[in-house]
Amino acid sequence: MIEETSSSNRELITLPIVSGNILAKVLQYCENHGGDDKSIAEELRAWDADFAKLDKDTLFQLILAANYLGIERLVDLASEGAWSKVRAESAGDILYGNRYSSDEDQEIRMEYQWVSGCSGKN
Protein backbone atom coordinates (compact mmCIF):
# COMPACT_ATOMS: atom_id res chain seq x y z
CA MET A 1 0.00 0.00 0.00
CA ILE A 2 2.77 2.41 0.86
CA GLU A 3 5.49 2.55 -1.72
CA GLU A 4 9.01 3.84 -1.26
CA THR A 5 9.70 6.93 -3.36
CA SER A 6 12.81 8.91 -3.94
CA SER A 7 13.07 12.09 -1.90
CA SER A 8 12.86 14.20 -5.08
CA ASN A 9 9.41 12.79 -5.93
CA ARG A 10 7.83 13.38 -2.55
CA GLU A 11 5.04 15.88 -2.15
CA LEU A 12 3.72 17.28 1.08
CA ILE A 13 0.18 16.12 1.78
CA THR A 14 -1.84 18.04 4.33
CA LEU A 15 -4.22 15.98 6.46
CA PRO A 16 -5.98 18.62 8.56
CA ILE A 17 -8.10 16.28 10.66
CA VAL A 18 -5.48 13.58 11.25
CA SER A 19 -2.94 14.06 14.05
CA GLY A 20 0.55 12.61 13.84
CA ASN A 21 -0.04 9.85 16.40
CA ILE A 22 -3.27 8.77 14.68
CA LEU A 23 -1.57 8.81 11.28
CA ALA A 24 1.11 6.54 12.75
CA LYS A 25 -1.63 4.08 13.79
CA VAL A 26 -3.19 4.28 10.31
CA LEU A 27 0.20 3.54 8.73
CA GLN A 28 0.75 0.67 11.17
CA TYR A 29 -2.60 -0.80 10.08
CA CYS A 30 -1.76 -0.34 6.38
CA GLU A 31 1.64 -1.98 6.77
CA ASN A 32 0.09 -5.03 8.43
CA HIS A 33 -2.69 -5.26 5.85
CA GLY A 34 -0.53 -4.43 2.82
CA GLY A 35 -0.93 -7.73 1.04
CA ASP A 36 -3.83 -9.29 2.93
CA ASP A 37 -2.51 -12.70 1.86
CA LYS A 38 -5.12 -15.31 2.77
CA SER A 39 -2.41 -17.60 4.15
CA ILE A 40 -1.78 -15.15 7.00
CA ALA A 41 -5.47 -14.46 7.68
CA GLU A 42 -5.25 -16.04 11.15
CA GLU A 43 -2.30 -13.83 12.08
CA LEU A 44 -4.18 -10.76 10.85
CA ARG A 45 -7.23 -11.63 12.94
CA ALA A 46 -5.04 -11.85 16.04
CA TRP A 47 -3.27 -8.59 15.12
CA ASP A 48 -6.63 -6.86 14.47
CA ALA A 49 -8.01 -8.04 17.82
CA ASP A 50 -4.99 -6.59 19.60
CA PHE A 51 -5.13 -3.36 17.56
CA ALA A 52 -8.83 -2.88 18.43
CA LYS A 53 -7.91 -2.82 22.15
CA LEU A 54 -6.74 0.80 21.86
CA ASP A 55 -8.43 3.30 24.15
CA LYS A 56 -11.85 4.59 23.13
CA ASP A 57 -10.72 8.12 22.21
CA THR A 58 -7.97 6.79 19.95
CA LEU A 59 -10.45 4.44 18.28
CA PHE A 60 -12.87 7.32 17.63
CA GLN A 61 -10.05 9.38 16.12
CA LEU A 62 -9.04 6.38 13.99
CA ILE A 63 -12.61 6.06 12.71
CA LEU A 64 -12.57 9.69 11.60
CA ALA A 65 -9.11 9.42 10.04
CA ALA A 66 -9.83 6.16 8.23
CA ASN A 67 -13.11 7.53 6.93
CA TYR A 68 -11.36 10.70 5.73
CA LEU A 69 -8.67 8.60 4.03
CA GLY A 70 -11.16 6.09 2.58
CA ILE A 71 -9.83 3.02 4.42
CA GLU A 72 -13.13 1.20 4.90
CA ARG A 73 -11.74 -1.91 6.61
CA LEU A 74 -9.98 0.24 9.21
CA VAL A 75 -13.23 2.15 9.77
CA ASP A 76 -14.93 -1.20 10.40
CA LEU A 77 -12.19 -2.48 12.72
CA ALA A 78 -12.01 0.71 14.79
CA SER A 79 -15.82 0.89 14.93
CA GLU A 80 -16.03 -2.66 16.26
CA GLY A 81 -13.37 -1.88 18.87
CA ALA A 82 -15.13 1.33 19.95
CA TRP A 83 -18.49 -0.46 20.08
CA SER A 84 -17.12 -3.17 22.36
CA LYS A 85 -15.83 -0.51 24.75
CA VAL A 86 -19.02 1.58 24.73
CA ARG A 87 -21.20 -1.52 25.10
CA ALA A 88 -19.41 -2.33 28.38
CA GLU A 89 -20.14 1.11 29.88
CA SER A 90 -23.23 2.16 31.79
CA ALA A 91 -25.48 4.92 30.45
CA GLY A 92 -24.16 7.27 33.12
CA ASP A 93 -20.55 6.60 32.13
CA ILE A 94 -21.35 7.28 28.50
CA LEU A 95 -23.21 10.52 29.22
CA TYR A 96 -21.10 11.94 32.02
CA GLY A 97 -17.84 10.02 32.16
CA ASN A 98 -15.83 11.03 35.21
CA ARG A 99 -16.75 14.70 35.12
CA TYR A 100 -18.20 14.72 38.64
CA SER A 101 -16.82 13.62 41.98
CA SER A 102 -18.92 11.15 43.98
CA ASP A 103 -20.15 14.02 46.19
CA GLU A 104 -21.19 16.08 43.16
CA ASP A 105 -22.84 13.03 41.62
CA GLN A 106 -24.81 12.36 44.81
CA GLU A 107 -25.88 16.01 45.00
CA ILE A 108 -27.12 15.94 41.39
CA ARG A 109 -29.01 12.69 41.99
CA MET A 110 -30.70 14.16 45.09
CA GLU A 111 -31.63 17.36 43.24
CA TYR A 112 -33.21 15.43 40.37
CA GLN A 113 -34.84 12.55 42.25
CA TRP A 114 -38.06 13.21 40.41
CA VAL A 115 -36.48 11.87 37.22
CA SER A 116 -37.74 8.35 36.66
CA GLY A 117 -35.23 5.72 37.71
CA CYS A 118 -33.01 8.10 39.69
CA SER A 119 -33.34 7.25 43.38
CA GLY A 120 -30.64 9.49 44.81
CA LYS A 121 -28.66 6.40 45.83
CA ASN A 122 -25.61 4.95 44.08
From TrEMBL:
Subunit text: Part of a SCF (SKP1-cullin-F-box) protein ligase complex.
GO biological process, one term: ubiquitin-dependent protein catabolic process
Segments forming domain SKP1 component POZ: 1-33
Protein's UniProt keywords contain Transmembrane helix: no
Any matching Pfam family: Skp1_POZ
Record family assignment: Belongs to the SKP1 family.
Protein name listed in UniProt: SKP1-like protein
Functional pathway: Protein modification; protein ubiquitination
InterPro entries named among the record's database cross-references: SKP1 (IPR016897), SKP1-like (IPR001232), SKP1-like_dim_sf (IPR036296), SKP1/BTB/POZ_sf (IPR011333), Skp1_comp_POZ (IPR016073)
Key words, A-Z: Ligase, Ubl conjugation pathway
Function per UniProt: Involved in ubiquitination and subsequent proteasomal degradation of target proteins. Together with CUL1, RBX1 and a F-box protein, it forms a SCF E3 ubiquitin ligase complex. The functional specificity of this complex depends on the type of F-box protein. In the SCF complex, it serves as an adapter that links the F-box protein to CUL1.
A GO molecular-function descriptor: ligase activity
